[in-house]
Design a protein that fits this description.
Helix 9 packs antiparallel against helix 10. The protein has 748 residues and is α/β, with parallel strands linked by helices. The N terminus is likely disordered. The protein contains 23 helices and 14 strands. The longest helix has 63 residues.
Amino acid sequence: MAAQSTLLDRNARRTSLIVFVAAVLLARERLLTGPIHLIRSLRESTGFGHSAVSEEELQKALQEVYRENKDGSRTLLVPDRGRVSEVHIRPIAEETLSKTARLFPPLPPAAKTKPSLDKAFLRQLFALIRIAIPGLRSRETLDVLLHSAFLVLRTVLSLAVARLDGMIVRDLVSADGSGFLKGLGLWFALAVPSTYTNSMIRHLQSKLALRFRERLTRYTHDLYLSSQPHLRYYRISSEGGLDGIDQYLTSDIEGWSESLAGLYGNLLKPSFDLFLFTAQLSSTLGVRGTAALFVNYYITARILRAVTPAFGRLAAVEARLEGEYRSGVGRVGRESEEVAFYDGGRRERQILWRAYLRLIKHVNNIFKIRIAYEWTEDYVIKYLWSAAGYMLISIPVLFTRRHDRGVQTYGPGGGGKKNDAVAARTENYISSRRLLLSLADAGGRLMYAQKDLLELAGLTTRLYTLLSTLHALPPLPTPAPQPAPRVALNSVDVGIPGDPGAPLVRALTLALGPGDHLMITGSNGVGKTAVARVLASLWAPGNDAARFGGVSRPAAGEIVVVPQRAYMVAGSLLDQVIYPDSYPQFLSSGKTLEDLDQILQDVHLGYLVAREGGWGVRKEWRDVLSGGEKQRMAMARVFYRRPRFAILDECTSAVSSDVEGHIYEGAKALGITLITISLRLSLEKYHTQLLTLAGDGTGAWRLTRVGAPEQRVGIEREIKTLRERLGEVGSWEKRLAELQWLLGPEAA
């Protein structure tokens, strides 16, 4: 009866344990999501956190984009699910960028295409990590420490699981029911921290990659989108020699961040696993088994190192080909109307398909190379290590001086001495087997990490090349300050930067004060726009003597350049008029929407607000507005800013002559001194000086005043030539009549 009662108690406890485990498994979703829903409902009921805002406030946040703070930082306004989230950012000052330039010395040309695991790679990686993790007190450092703690905890839990696994099998072989149930309960209890640790490792790795990407993206954007006198975004392709910058700024930064965050976990945890598991196994395997284990490590490393391809170089080439293909797709999107006019879809498809095939061919080659590598890696890690594991486990069993093949036995009536040799060997085998499997997994990840390291080396080289090239661009010469607003060139050679050939314009000298309106004319390709670029400080003078002091111009806000191809910014209709000012700057300027309405009226775009649906409407304006409307919108920006000088580079070529005249008269009425580049002789009357570029290869030029004697002589000479030709009209009419008579009555 006592034995039966004990058996019933054991069955009851077993049933209760099974019911408890099943209830926990069924209610796990409620247990995890319940607190989240409770906190969310409390926030909504109490108004804590970001409360819902009206549609008008959402539209205002979309228009405002950010707010300026007194300490120089900015608060980004991010509308999301009926709320407006505030994100505080602090732009990196130019002085800070200059201090970090020492981390990015220029690379030699050969190193830009040959990434490898050497000292140069470590130096480049360290420079990028200094940007991604700016200090020991940063948020990234805390995430790294938390990630490391969970990685170490996962290894400790793996040891506990391996030991518990052996104990459960031992109790099962020994027919110890109470011990088996106790071990099963511990198994479920140990599963809670194990699964939570695995989830946190993945979460912290993703969070770390996102933080790395955020730091590196902000740094690169602040460096790339620099203002005068750097203008790196404008010069990186022409002077830096880098193309496909969008690939660098998007995919490469994202890939590098994810690769670095993943590689940290793939190196730290397997390394710690190897150390801890080897130490644990050494107590079981003995000296000979431990020595054999290290020999296995060495042989595996030698084999995989011999068959590992140059994954770093392959990854760098793949990123470059991906950038070329992305650039081609973007080009078709930007120039879709021009392509459609030419019906060039078939030709563009051929160009894109060729770029795509180059990319796919390279990717397929990588896949083919990986076949042999992964085959060797799987064979070595899975099968060679498994066979080695069986051999290592057999060492303490087969090569000991004393062999005990006894089985579990009891004396008559259940008494006698208990023999647990089989159970002990089984426990030892199961624990060692699990440790060896985990050891094989750790070794495989360490070996596979070499490929990840090579791919990281390729991305590191590309990003380092971008940042070193941006830092290597010297600032443009700063124009000499002027006590009075004026634009002047003193013996300035105008030529293409980096071109050693003859300058387009040689020793150009001019001086313009308020009201000295200048028109620059000449045939195509003689350097008219090049003169505008030098005046706008986009290009440095071609001669060293004129680089400092050769160009004089007012401050940046007092001179505006309007290109022929008008740029439409992403944003609302209001943003198109006030560009490059932001909405907060518009509010602080004191101007009102009525002022903007008047500006649109002055450039004959007064109908635009009603037609498009208001100032706050957001569209793809480069597709919505016609060519003439875009050019008039660019002139509306000039009227909004009211600079002292405006350089107009063929910016009214798509505008009718009558509207063009009204715009020029309106600009002069606002006190804006015009510097116009045009071939339209009808615009001469709005200017006081005329600069004519010869375009004969000598860089010659001629500066005259409109209405001056020399210009009048030229006009009178042209009138005389036309009158002489008109005097020949009679002879031409006589010859025409003779030809008609020869052709007969039908021609007449």
